[in-house]
Amino acid sequence: MRLDILTCLPKLLESPFSDSILKRAQDKKLVEVVVHDLRSYSTTKHRTTDDYAFGGGAGMVMTIEPIDRCISVLKEQRTYHEIIYMSPDGELLNQSLANQLSLKENLILLCGHYKGVDERVREHLITREVSIGDYVLSGGELAAAVLADSIIRLIPGVLSDETSALTDSFQDGLVAPPVYTRPAEYKGWKVPEVLLSGHEAKINEWRHDQSLERTKKRRPGLGMV
Length: 225
Description:
The protein is of the alpha/beta class and 225 residues long. It is built from 6 helices and 9 strands; from the N terminus they run βαβββαβαβαβαββα.
């Protein structure tokens, strides 16, 4: 998979992709993440990527030309399955969407900033809009990193145990059950006996029951199965 991320503040994306699972995925050539500075595609003297909004009002707006120029260059090199704009009023990111996008080969993620992007970008250049929640961030960079993480970890070979992603919260419409590790007793706090029994069927049944209970209590809006 290849992810091209378009931003006017590329330094904000250095840390998320330079450590842990996302770095290892790149080192293993399972994913290629390329961050593009939209200022490099500006034709103004000071490489600006924003301007005042027509009609007045507070806040600056990202201009269409640098975005269009960057996307056009990338599309000349390869075919993209989705061109995604990170937007607070976009489709809400969930596990199902992450699963879908993890099967794609080439994706572009556009990070908004300031007051957003010229509406013509949304009308003519992108194919999908995604939100990571009903709140507003200073820019789309952190949201793009969240989306990228949720996608990349699902690519076969990224996680050392490929079954791990299949047992994550939300994969089966439930939140994950509680987990424990050594020691089996600490300050009198004990691990449930069933987890120490070695009886796989009983353990699986306990975990499913715990997932059901947790989902009902903590996330009742999820569709339980």
